[in-house]
Amino acid sequence: MTKTALITGATSGIGHATAYEFAKQGINLVLCGRRLERLHTIQEALGKLTHVHILNFDVRDKTETFKAIESLPENFKQIDILINNAGNAHGLDPIDTGSLDDWDAMMDINVKGLLYVSKAIIPQMTARKSGHIINIGSSAGKEVYPKGNVYCGSKHAVLAITEGMRIDLNPYGIKVGAISPGLVETEFSQVRFKGDKIADTVYQGFQALQAKDVAEVVYFAVSRPAHVNIADVLMFCTAQANASILNKSI
Ligand code: NDP
Ligand code: 8X3
């Protein structure tokens, strides 16, 4: 039977690339994000490969999140695969000068948003005793780097929550895992540095992971046989050996 996947943060980067990998395999898609115009464009493109429904909401907003997921039409209501991908870093500052707004954004989106979306979808999975949840973690969830403080904290939380989900949902036969990349060349640094030109230097001088590299691993994880659960993947570009950001001038 054709499966349906809901992907948060599908308007760019890893989420968009994952949507494309899934569409090529004929997986039905529910694509989420705040930028409606992009959602329409992606729906039109991927609609040539599979069935696509879009949901336009901000994962920080509990009410909006539940309303959006409840609004799914009958043919998209059953979510077999949930990819919790929406997230970002905001700022790269020492803890003593970091901004409260940046901290709120990272905890509200990366941690609480992931929980809201999961809470809206898990009941249907437990009722059916099947489902697969992949949370996009980060190497920053395994290791802390200078000035990474709160972003690293949010991603450590994602990995802890992933483990908790896997344990609690195991009796229902629901698979839960995390994919944790290092530096991936997406809009991530544009967001982190708020459009500052320093963002252009982050991926200079080496070949960073591309969104497609991560998307292929996400598809690998969801396409394993029923008895196999990919619990945790840490992946780097060849030039990166640990979670430290390579460009020391940043
Ligand atoms: P992008 O900035 O390219 O994509 C982020 C996505 O998240 C966008 O689609 C954005 O959509 C969505 N998003 C952000 N805030 C919200 C919100 N409040 N509500 C709903 N959607 C939101 O970055 P990446 O693709 O790189 O990031 C995807 C995930 O991968 C994140 O969780 C990130 O932490 C993680 N990651 C990234 C790495 C990297 O180096 N790039 C490495 C390791 C992990 P929209 O703005 O339309 O809402
Ligand atoms: C993103 C990886 O190292 O740019 O999670 O913070 S990093």
Topology:
Layout: E1 4-7, H1 13-24, E2 28-33, H2 36-46, E3 52-56, H3 62-70, E4 81-84, H4 100-128, E5 132-136, H5 149-169, E6 175-181, E7 184-185, H6 188-192, E8 209-210, H7 211-222, E9 232-235
Parallel strand pairs: 1-2, 1-4, 2-3, 4-5, 5-6, 6-9, 7-8
The chain binds NADPH dihydro-nicotinamide-adenine-dinucleotide phosphate and 2-hydroxyethylsulfonic acid (8X3).
2-hydroxyethylsulfonic acid is lined by residues 89, 138-140, 182-183, 243, 245.
Question: Describe it for me?
Answer:
- By secondary structure, this protein is an alpha/beta fold.
- The chain has one domain (4-235): NAD(P)-binding Rossmann-like Domain (Rossmann fold, 3-Layer(aba) Sandwich), CATH 3.40.50.720.
- 40% of the residues lie in helices and 16% in strands.
- It is built from seven helices and nine strands.
- The protein has helices spanning 13-24, 36-46, 62-70, 100-128, 149-169, 188-192, 211-222, and strands spanning 4-7, 28-33, 52-56, 81-84, 132-136, 175-181, 184-185, 209-210, 232-235.
- It has a seven-stranded parallel beta sheet, with helices on both faces. Strands 7-8 form a two-stranded parallel ribbon.
- α4 runs parallel beside α5.
- It starts with a strand and ends in a 15-residue tail after the last strand.
